[in-house]
Amino acid sequence: MSLRTRIYNLFEIRGAEEVAARVLNVLLMFLILVNVLAVILETVEEYRIQYGMWFRYLEIGSVIVFTFEYMLRVWSCVENSSYGGGWWARLRYMRSPMAVVDLLAILPFFCSMLFSIDTRMLRVFRLFRVFKLSRHFSVLEVLGNVFRSEAKALLSAIFIMMILVVLSSAGMYVVERSTQPEVFSSIPRAMWWAVVTLTTVGYGDVVPVSLAGRLLGVVITILGVGMAALPGGILRSGFSGGLAAPRRAFENSAAKVGMGWGMTYHSQRQLIKIRNELGLERGEAKQLLKKVVLEHQLSEQGEEDVCPHCGKILH
């Protein structure tokens, strides 16, 4: 096995280097969290004055580690056949979302060395490092996939919400303009009330006082309860489906390669590869495999001949 393959396996948590890869990924996660915490604490003037030097040392050390990680990932990405081969594969990898996140994690530091940048803006950009955690937590990756897959539905919900905001603002402008000219003097000014009401936040700083305005406010509030829940429902449905999809895919793959009865070495390696690609934990994959084996035994022997708890054949 070449050095490049070993490095690729380290970053992807696969092969013989799985234990070392998990240790490496835990250390990287810890460094990311420490960086985010440091950026937050650095905004406190007292801490910035007292520990400014240590914050600087942490930033330099972190940039060295993240830069080294980025370079190794770009170098070893050709081991993934989906990117192809040669430098074109590396360019394709560099355009991937996670590679862009890795680049944004180190870019502010080098930009600050070349250009004069406001330190407050620099701290904000350094917070982009928190997105590096999405590589280490499959749940965040699932959430990103949900946003991509449900983009049309979410945009439709947002578009409907925008229409309601405009109509609500216009209606409140008409009925409240004469009563509260300082608050509802124009449709743009009334939009603040419409947004707060439709999203069910209700700060209470601006309220209708006329009878017509209050009646309209009741209708808009009722509409807002349903509309505010719509994007959440879309995300909730997509998120639950996204979490279940890798499990279903592993079960289907296990059924195709032999599941667990008379499994060959080749089929075992194939299942391990599938597990890694789907991002499933070893224990979770074992439980799914047991489930598939039990279902197979039930179908082969008949439900009355197999224990539903342990899967053993009853005599």
From TrEMBL:
Instruction: Specify the species.
Output: Candidatus Desulfobia pelagia
Tell me the membrane topology, using the record's own terms. Answer: Multi-pass membrane protein
Q: What is the protein named?
A: Ion transporter
Q: Which Pfam families match?
A: Ion_trans
Q: Which domain of life is it from?
A: Bacteria
| PANTHER family, per the entry | POTASSIUM VOLTAGE-GATED CHANNEL PROTEIN SHAB, VOLTAGE-GATED POTASSIUM CHANNEL
* GO BP terms in the entry: action potential
Q: What is its main location?
A: membrane
GO MF, one annotated term? voltage-gated potassium channel activity
Domain Ion transport: from-to ranges: 22-240
Report the SUPFAM superfamilies cross-referenced here. Answer: Voltage-gated potassium channels
Q: Which residues cross the membrane?
A: 21-41, 53-72, 99-117, 153-175, 187-205, 211-230
Its cellular-component GO annotations read:
voltage-gated potassium channel complex
